[in-house]
Amino acid sequence: MPGAAFFDLDKTIIAKSSVLAFGKPFYREGLLSRGMIAKSIYAQIVFMLVGADESKMEKIRESMLSLTKGWNQERIATIVRETLDEIISPIIFAEALELFAEHHAAGQRVIIVSSSPMEVVGPLSEYLGADEVIATLAEIDDDGNYTGDLAFYAYGPFKAEAISAIALRDGLDLAECYAYSDSITDLPMLEIVGHPVPVNADRELARVAKEKGWEMRTFQQPVRLRDRVPNPPKAPTLAAAGVLTIGAIGAASYIAWRRVLGVRA
Is the whole-model pTM more than 0.85? Predict the structure, then answer.
């Protein structure tokens, strides 16, 4: 089997944090205040300049869970779908799109692996032409609102476990697979494939990559998707996203997610 290419999202495929990028449309819809927007801008600057280590990622996770508790899942998904072109198109790295095309031409699937929520990553991956998604799954109550807890956190070692589950499900040889990421927190994901490629690597990841002799790349050419693809695919509805959602709706736990993949827990 030709294998697959696993891509982190933020600062690897797009130039910013995908979640923070949607601050403006969330504000327009009354979900965020001006103060929250100011904090998100500050967080974006920190994210861009110094990266996100484990402690920063944990703070971001806790902050986002507290902030979004009670938000309606379908409302968020709708906002994301309706503003994808406005928000994401200007910040996509041309180099990432070129790699997508190269891997597809080689018969390899492109899979986005992101700690951002499925409601953002699922439609975005369809928009970009990816084949499948691993993303964070939020718990939803009976009214379709976020509970403030997670069913699955697509972060650090959990990304690597999810990639291994897909490889087992589909008979992929991880030695023939590629992984791309900017962050030291994704070291487990990079180490389990035969072709790890740090992209826009933070300081710690760059140090590890040099020690291991890994190829490193720098992406720095944001390009509007419509300039590269005249008619990019429309993002799917949350209910119709199919394999992209891998159990996002109503997922009770990571074990349930693994069962969707057909892998024993």
Answer: no
